[in-house]
Write a structure and sequence with these properties.
Blueprint (H helix, E strand, L loop, with lengths): L6 E5 L3 H12 L3 E5 L3 H9 L3 E2 L3 H4 L5 E4 L4 H9 L13 E4 L5 H12 L4 E4 L2 E2 L2 H5 L3 E5 L3 H14 E6 L6 H29 L4 H9 L6 H12 L8 H17 L5 H18 L7 H9 L9
Parallel strand pairs: 1-2, 1-4, 2-3, 4-5, 5-6, 8-9
Antiparallel strand pairs: 7-8
């Protein structure tokens, strides 16, 4: 990599991380990617990025490390596990954690990393793979002023909306959990509505057209119900993701003695979908559970 370019490492080249890495490259970062998928690594190399075998190798010389994994456990492994990045990052570099997690865990991870002389930015993301690839995401970030300063150029490259939500880790993750509560409920209720429409014998393509132009629309209805209309449940976001995220919501609510019955009901529908073998399918598979329970017929993918 050229020594005069800003350097970034992206750990996790999935549907979101890959687009984020592309956005960094467009902003003239020299980017090293690392992923458990050899196919993703090869694709990234072919698209002009550098690749590394381990997270520790990827972050050598990096000013910014962007970690786009699924969970708190995976984030902790990237930081402090075998071949982890905590001691391999240059002193003063910033670790941007994009995973959805309990705010208390984000605080603990930040404290451990900051004790080594590196910065931690609690930076969950939202927007989907297309916005990630276009540098048009939203990032809900919290961290020290030094962490924000170190991450500033990377944040601008990856997101059009950067919310600065606090001067320590934790609030970023808390804001993301509110988003995930709403997103999970919206997908579940959109699935309920579409399966109900099918049960009424309505043309689902026409239902989609009418609702997306009416007051009952939501971003999740518009984005996810295309799966139901097409009968194609190829995942961009899986059912298991919302089992994790709404599970975190329930844990937080229980600890706070806060009632969250609508989120709890939505969680049960995702659990039913996973229990029916749809855990790795698109999260809109909840509609298929409603169809199974009611006898409604949903469209099937055209061969």
């Amino acid at each position: 990599m050229s020594s005069d370019r800003r350097r970034a490492a992206v750990i996790g080249l999935g549907s979101m991380g890959y687009g984020m890495a592309q956005s960094l490259m467009r902003a003239q970062f020299a980017v090293v990617g690392c992923d458990v998928s050899a196919a993703s690594m090869q694709r990234f190399k072919e698209d002009g990025g550098e690749v590394a075998r381990t997270p520790a190798e990827a972050v050598a010389g990096a000013d910014v490390v962007v970690c786009v994994v699924v969970s708190a456990a995976q984030t902790e492994a990237v930081l402090f596990g075998p071949e982890g990045v905590a001691e391999a990052m240059p002193p003063g570099a910033v670790f941007m954690s994009a995973a959805t997690m309990d705010p208390e865990i984000a605080k603990r991870l930040a404290a451990r990393l900051e004790a080594t002389g590196r910065h931690y930015l609690d930076a969950p993301i939202s927007g989907g793979p297309v916005k990630a690839a276009n540098g048009d995401m939203s990032i809900m970030a919290s961290g020290t002023p030094a962490a924000f300063k170190a991450a500033d150029a990377a944040l601008s490259a990856m997101a059009s909306k950067i919310y600065r939500l606090g001067d320590a880790a934790g609030p970023g993750s808390a804001f993301k959990m509110i988003n995930q509560l709403l997103a999970g409920v919206h997908i579940a209720v959109a699935s309920e509505a579409m399966a109900f429409a099918a049960h009424q014998g309505l043309d689902l393509a026409k239902v989609y057209e009418v609702i997306t132009g009416s007051a009952g629309n939501s971003w999740m209805f518009e984005n996810r119900m295309t799966h139901v209309v097409s009968g194609d449940y190829t995942p961009l976001s899986t059912t298991e993701i919302f089992i994790k995220d709404l599970g975190i919501v329930q844990d937080m609510a229980r600890a706070a003695r806060y009632p969250a019955p609508i989120a709890a009901t939505a969680l049960q529908m995702y659990l039913a979908a996973a229990g029916s073998g749809m855990g790795q399918d698109a999260d809109a598979s909840v509609a298929r559970v409603y169809a199974q329970m009611s006898g409604a017929t949903l469209p099937e993918k055209k061969k």
